[in-house]
Amino acid sequence: MRYSAEHKRRTRRRIVERAAAALRRRGLGVGVADLMREAGLTHGGFYAHFRSKDALLAEAVDVASEQSVRNLRKVIKRAGSRPALAAIGDAYLTAAHRDRPDRGCALAAVGTELARESPAARRALAAQVASLLSLLAECAPDQRAVTRRRRAMTTLSCLVGALILSRIVVDRQTSADILSAARRHLTELDG
Question: What integer is the mean pLDDT of 101-127?
């Protein structure tokens, strides 16, 4: 049975979205068969949609990046008169984000793993870094572009680093303290 081009496009999108969530939740150890199962399909159909697992990884990172930027833009819009970077810190550095990596930032969930992967996966990850830096630079209060970019870099480093550390530590109180300290730091920078 032949499927329409639209059906194939929707199926591919479903695979990529499910793969993006699975990778953020379980890391790069997740196999093609598991990724296809998450999308409700059999392993055999994988190569009808992708050349390789690396191609799927790159697309999944792209989708996760789009989701992250879209979510942060919503935070900025809701910030009102509040400094945008502080609002982003409050939204990003939460227990919910810590506990649900499948719905959060791919950079914090699998960034260190993807940095050692194929060139396609690394390019997708680098594009996510660039997108996030661009968004954060837009929010920086400084007038000079170089200062805004530097502020974006330190903010992204604080966000991602604090979230990763909060996921690593076993003690829940220490985890919450890391998130709180990073949020306070970002707020003080705008103060």
Answer: 86
